[in-house]
Amino acid sequence: MSKKKTPKQKTTLKGNMPQKTILIGEDLYIENSTDRTIRLLIILIAGLVPLIVFCKLQTFIMPVIETFMNFSTTTITDFFTYYKQVVLLLLTAILLIVFLREILTKTSRPLTLHRLDIPILVFILSLCITMLTAEYKTLALWGGYTRNLGIVTYLACAFILFVLINMRINAKWSKMFYIALYPLVFINTIMLVLSYYGVNLWNVDFIVLLLTGGNPEYVTESARIHGTLNHVNYLSGLGAVLFAIFAGRAVLAEKNFTVDHLLSIAAAILSATIVFASKSLSGVVTMAFILVILLGLVVDRKGANIVTLLLILGFTAVCWTALSLHNASFIKEIRDSVGLLIATAVLSLLVFLVYLFAKNWHEINKKKLLISGIIVVVLAVAVVVPVIPKVESAVTAELNRINSDLIRERLQQDEFDFPEAKFTWGTGRLYIWKETLKLVAEKPLFGYGFDTLPFEFDQTDPAKIAALASPYVIVDKPHNIYINMLFGAGIVAFLAFMAIVLMVIIKAIQAIIANPENSALIWPILLGIVAYLGQGMFNDPVQGVESLFWVMLGLAYGLAVNLPAADKVVDNE
Questions:
Q1: pLDDT of residue 547
Q2: What are the φ and ψ backbone dihedral angles of 571, each rounded to 5 degrees?
Q3: 3-state class of 15 per DSSP?
Q4: Scanning 18, 125, 178, 490, which has its CA 20 to 30 A from the CA of 497?
Q5: Number of C-alpha atoms within 13 angstroms, CB side, residue 297?
Q6: Distance between CA atoms of 31 and 38, rounded to whole angstroms?
């Protein structure tokens, strides 16, 4: 038997700088130190920024609402957002400098025009106009206290996306991206589980000194820390996103029970634990959506990696059971929301069917599809129509119960005829969404500026008693990433944002259909994007998670555009 010849490697040197030759499609692309620097910066933005927790004294400017409420401007400590923003802006500035230097000084790296550039440009310009037209410009630009998510953060995210879609992204980018997220999973799992079982890390002197910079007096006696984000709802959403990424990576792995595969399974289980330990439904609903898609992918791949999915589900169930033995209240909350979970699973199934139709469109019998579609629609109408009157009646009753005008009319007749103090649907979210959308309708084009809701919302509305169980709650967030964009930046930025998201998803799906061998690289990140969009129905954008989302957008688009049928990297270092 003749000895197989080793392919000759091409070595490219410029001075003493080590370089890599990457074969992408038919192009021979030289990866230099600038490419690796940009990749490192992106990895730091995705993996380091969400982990940053450190004390910052901030001035809290409170609007004067009513004299009897006695709200005032004061100084408040922020541990979770200020320095995340600082590091994000610093890394983004370095990223832009390195990228622009490469573009302006190297003729071999011209900018590539993408259709995605148009909505990115519209998004950036609309944010600039919002900044000029906002009444509270400082808040709109930098964001409010304990949030720090203003226009400047969104501009940084848009620039990150722009850089990524102009990079030649290969499989190594995605692998390093996953590695960067492992600390985020492990650290938040440990912190949240300890908090769940009653361990307050603020009682540990070393942690207090580390996170306060040697000023333990900045931590109040009642303070609790659950993770690297400042609320369990955000941790639930983050857990769902991480679950989607790592469960997708494990289920779609080409080689089973390797180190990467086992780490992905472990990370998926721990991410689900974050969701359960946070005791927030947003993550559970998102996980239900993702699990249906994962099951569909397994079926579509003729049962491949079904064992992996069963392992993830089995160990996730064990973790949930262990947590429930300590506190069963979340089980009751999930049981009470079973209708929402079923509706989510049905919606996820419909979304996956659309993907299957797109994938197999040329092989589908269009006549049979039309007939089947008509039958499904008729059956759906037959099932839904009888339920519509009950749903309409329930919705109307709830909207009337939290109707500000009706409550004010009753109070004019009897000043003590207050509504019953309770929460409306979604722990008050229905009321907040309804009233915030009224504000959007008054200033639709470019919005009010991010984090200015406490100034614009009618904080004296008596309907807050019926919707939020108390008249003293200050509504400062819309609890929805889409309404947040509409209110903060207006419909122009919102449409540009949605165009960016849809174009990335469509490009990723097209790449998966065209080159199924690359699905293991693209699907996990795509599932992470979908999970973020799902949990965003119930959560606000938050520092750390928002930048992670925009990095995922760039990676998904970059992989879709640049991955060939076979991605070969030749290392000449």
A1: 95
A2: -90, 120
A3: coil
A4: 178
A5: 27
A6: 11
Average pLDDT of the chain? 85
Alpha carbon 311 to chain centroid distance? Answer: 25
| Cβ proximity of 135 and 448 under 8 Å | yes
The first and second tokens of residue 468, run together, are 């939020």
d(CA 321, CA 367): 48
Cα of first residue to Cα of last residue in the chain, in angstroms, is 32
DSSP for residue 190 = H
The Cα 163–Cα 557 span in angstroms is 11
Distance CA 215, CA 56 (A): 11
Task: Give exposure, 479-513, as e/b (b: 16+ Cβ within 10 Å).
Answer: bbbebbbbbbbbbbbbbbbebbbebbbebbbebbe
Beta-carbon contacts of 427 under 8 Å, excluding residues fewer than 6 positions away, are none
Q: List the beta bridge partners of residue 17.
A: 14
Q: Are 94 and 41 in contact (CB under 8 A)?
A: yes
Contact indicator for 238, 229 with CB cutoff of 8 Å:
yes
42-75 pLDDT, tens digit per residue, is 999 999 999 999 998 877 666 555 544 445 667 7
The tally of CA atoms less than 13 A away on the side-chain side of residue 372 is 8
d(CA 183, CA 190): 11
- Distance between CA atoms of residues 87 and 100, nearest Å: 20
Helix axes 232-251, 519-535, angle to 10 degrees: 160
CB of 117 within 8 A of CB of 162?
yes
> What element of type H or E holds 173?
helix 171-196
Please tell me the predicted confidence (pLDDT) of residue 357.
Answer: 83
Residue length of the chain: 573
Burial of 101 (0-12, 13-18, 19+ CB in 10 A): exposed
* Regions of the chain short of the pLDDT cut 50: 1-18, 21-28, 67-70, 565-573
Q: Quote the CA–CA distance of 510 and 528 in Å, as a whole number.
A: 17
